[in-house]
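Let us work through a complete example step by step.
Step 1: write down the sequence.
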Amino acid sequence: MNEIIKKNASELVDLMASGELSATEITKAHLDRIAEINGTINSYLHVTSEAALAVAADVDRRRAAGEKLPLLAGVPIAVKDNLTTTDAPTTSGSKILEGWIPQYDATVVTKLRNELMPILGKTNLDEFAMGSSTEFSAFGPSRNPWDIERIPGGSGGGSSSAVASYSAPLAIGSDTGGSIRFPAAVTGTVGHKPTYGAISRYGLIALASSLDQIGPVSRNVLDAALLQDVIAGHDPHDSTSLPESLGSMAEAARNGSVKGMRFGVIKQLSGEGFQPGVKKRFDETLALLTANGAEIVEVDCPSFEYAIAAYYLILPAEASSNLAKFDSVRFGMRVNPGENATIERVMAATREAGFGPEVKRRIILGTYALSSGSYDKYYGAAQKVRTLIQRDFEAAFAKADVLISPTAPTTAFKFGEKVDDPLAMYLNDVATIPANLAGTPGIAIPNGLADEDGLPSGVQLLAPARADARLYKVAAALEALHEAGWGKRMMDFAPELKVGA
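Step 2: predict the structure and record it as C-alpha cells.
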C-alpha cells in the first residue's frame, strides 16, 4: 500500500507546503487506490480521474509560481452522489437518475472547486439517501473495509468506506437522521452533522428538507474541522442558510479540552438495546473523561422515546413531496408503457421502474400521512413530538455543556441481516435521529473496538444549535485521550485491505 494514502488531510497540507509531495502525486496515489479496490468496495459510483489530475496539476503550477493558495488546495476529496456536479453524473443512487448530468454545481461543490481540491469522484449511497446500509443503492452496496461481508453504514456508506479504505482523505456526506454519523461509527471514521443551516443545501437532492444537512467525513477531528471551515457559510441560494458565521472549527479543534466540561449522559440512550461491546467501550469513555477532569451527569429526555416514530412520519411526508418532481417529464428516466401512453401512464411506469422498494415504501407512507383525515392524526402529531424533543434538548443543555451517547446500538452488521426488516433497520438511528429533529449539531468519533467482533464502535457528542465549535473542541480532546490510551491512531488497528489487486 502506498504510504501517501495513509496520511490525513492536515498531514498532506504540511507535506505539500514543504515540497516533499506534490498535489499530483497525492491525487494519483488515491486514484490508483480507487482503481485497485473499488471493484470490491464499491465506494465510488463515478470516478473523475482526468478532472482531479487537472486540478492537482494546476495547484502544483501555482505553488511553483509562488502563488498564495487556499489551505486545502491539492487535498483530494470524495463527494456523495446526491450533490449536483456539472462534470459528472448525479444519480442519488437511483436508476431514475442514471446518467443525469446537472446544469449547475451544488454550493458545497463550488466551494471545493474554489479551494482547489481535486474531486476524486461521487460516492455511493442508499437510493435518495433512504437507508442505513447502502443495500438500497440501485448500483449495489458499498462494503466495510474492516470486514467486506458487513455494511459500511448508510445512507453515506460510500463516503465512509472511501475514507476508511484510504480511497480518499476527506469526503462530503449528508445526514438526515444519522447518515454521516452512523457510517462513521461502523467504519472507525469521524463524521459531523452541523447545525441546521450552517452549510448550504443548495444543490443537494432533497430527501427531507427540514432534516437534511451536509457535513464532513474524515479520519480525525481536525480534518473534519478544516473541511467544515471550507464548506460552511451563508448562501443566498438557500433560504434556510444561517446569516452568521459560527467561527473557526479548526481553531476550536486545535485547542481541545474536556477539563471542567459537563457531559450529559442521556438516560434514554444508555440502557437496554445496546450491544455489550458497544456499551463497554462507552462506559470506558465516560471513565476516561472523569479521569481527565470532566463531570458526568445524567439527563432525562423522555420525548426521545418517540423520536423514531416521529421521524418516520415527518421524513416520508417530506420525501413524498420532494420526490414528486421525478415524473418522467422534465429530466431523468422515461419509460414508455406502449399503446395509449398518456402522461399519467408514462409517469406511473417510470416511477415503478425507476424507484426501488425502500423509496416506494416511504413515498406510500408519506403520502398517506399527508392525506385528508390523516394529516393531523399522524404528521401533525409527529411535529408536536418534534417540539417536545427540542424542549428536552433545551432542558438537558441547562444541565450539561455537551451530551454524550453511543453513536449506534451495534457494530456493523452483515449484509442481508436487516434488509427485509424495515423496523430493525430503522432502529440503527435511535441515537442520531433526535439531533436532526432539533437541528442541533452532532459529531461521531471512534472509541475502540467491540470485544465480540473486533469491529469499530463510536461515541456521539451533541451540542446546542450554533455550538459546533464547542463540539470540535471537546471531540478533538477526547480523540487525543483515546489515542493516547491506545498508543496509536484508530485506523492503525484496521487490517490491510487486500482486495481488487
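Step 3: interpret the result. DSSP finds 16 helices and eleven strands in the chain.
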